[in-house]
Amino acid sequence: xxxxxxxxxxxxxxxxxxxxxxxxxxxxxxxxxxxxxxxxxxxxxxxxxxxxxxxxxxxxxxxxxxxxxxxxxxxxxxxxxxxxxxxxxxxxxxxxxxxxxxxxxxxxxxxxxxxxxxxxxxxxxxxxxxxxxxxxxxxxxxxxxxxxxxxxxxxxxxxxxxxxxxxxxxxxxxxxxxxxxxxxxxxxxxxxxxxxxxxxxxxxxxxxxxxxxxxxxxxxxxxxxxxxxxxxxxxxxxxxxxxxxxxxxxxxxxxxxxxxxxxxxxxxxxxxxxxxxxxxxxxxxxxxxxxxxxxxxxxxxxxxxxxxxxxxxxxxxxxxxx
Length: 322
Known about the structure:
By secondary structure, the protein is an alpha/beta fold. It has two domains: about 5-105 and about 295-310, NAD(P)-binding Rossmann-like Domain (Rossmann fold, 3-Layer(aba) Sandwich), CATH 3.40.50.720; about 110-285, NAD(P)-binding Rossmann-like Domain (Rossmann fold, 3-Layer(aba) Sandwich), CATH 3.40.50.720. It is built from twelve helices and twelve strands. Strands 8-7-6-9-10-11-12 form a seven-stranded parallel beta sheet, sandwiched between helices. It starts with a helix and ends in an 11-residue tail after the last helix.
């Protein structure tokens, strides 16, 4: 990217720098990578109070996953989210105050897709029961299945869903899925249907992966009817917990409607110790960690640099939401 000093000509070099603040909830190496970007000064406070203080002291850019309404203080002009989901941000308040918001859409896709496939293989290959047997040192061979030749339904053929689809096709699976505007879909899935036909996808699939964001339209989208339509299949959720009716899922796993489930997200997080999911042997769970990757920081910083150029009027936004 162009040095900011070039944009500002002979302006004082320090004045040419834009001040940014990184929320303390971030991955290792993030601050070091951001500080290598020309044209910005990045602060990394230890807590949210420090974020507010930095914004009140002149920081105009906030890089964050966490949101608190008091962050609208000071001269905040742009929020770069480090998440693909936007449900935590007050979009209307941003519009009212002319604050830009860009997402991290696409940056997490490779890692989440690999994680989804890992969970899918774990439950289809029947790894849940042996994992539950480990504490008791019990040796018990369980039935297992293969994914090749089976149909995978992907709810949400967006950036993450498409990455999952590519990997599933590579494993010899037939892929169908849903997309808000299926007529615009271009990808490797054999067929894309509208969200209103979620139950049709469940009826046709041997396994379903949920890759949907949290929204008013997606809450409880996968309920008893959809799980019954999936019959002897498997469910994987790497989207958002509330998309799946958790009570209905527990019942479907307990009564044998489903063979198993791979879950990275839940209605309540952390998952309460009282949840029956902990004790169901056909469930393989991870603690909302599908996004984690040694390569994530590099992708996030590259995305931030492109959006920074747009913020400075030097090119198009990559992931502008507001």
